[in-house]
């Protein structure tokens, strides 16, 4: 099993769980994880470039392969993304930027991208992809027909999802911290016992305290 840096643990665990619980939707189209991977990789490479930390919610490609895919947006929420005050963009503020979180998500996603899928699932994916590509204009026009009310409802749901994720994230964080505390105190207890051993061996003799037993005999 691959070892990961401690800084990755929280997001790595949650991202893996989200993908596993939404395999059907997240893995049905390779584009979904590839887009999320690309977004995170660009920020890792250019952390100070604001343009890489902002995605328009109305972007057709992002809308179709991320916002319309169950569980996909949750992966970005895990890394600090949030909806801006205008409800127009998904952003990650510089103050919330954590490169370790992004690296952890990329690591999980790349494992799934490179992981060979079963033949049946691959056949189903090919069939779905073929149908999607056969009617590109219909897919695009469908995305464009979203009304303001629908977009607002979707954003509301995104905010609800984010709150749930933050609560779950905090729960797992507390568990990880508790595990670290337990591991931290175990070796210190062992070392403290070792340091006490020399004290028990330092015995004093009668001669050390001024009593000469050889003289008392006469």
From TrEMBL:
SUPFAM superfamilies named among the record's database cross-references: PUG domain-like
Bias (Low complexity) ranges: 116-132
Basic and acidic residues composition-biased segments: 166-185, 197-210
Coiled-coil annotated spans: none
Ranges of residues in domain PUB: 32-97
InterPro entries in alphabetical order: PUB-like_dom_sf (IPR036339), PUB_domain (IPR018997)
Record field: compositional bias (Polar residues): 133-146
Region (Disordered), start-end ranges: 116-154, 166-218
Protein name, entry field: PUB domain-containing protein
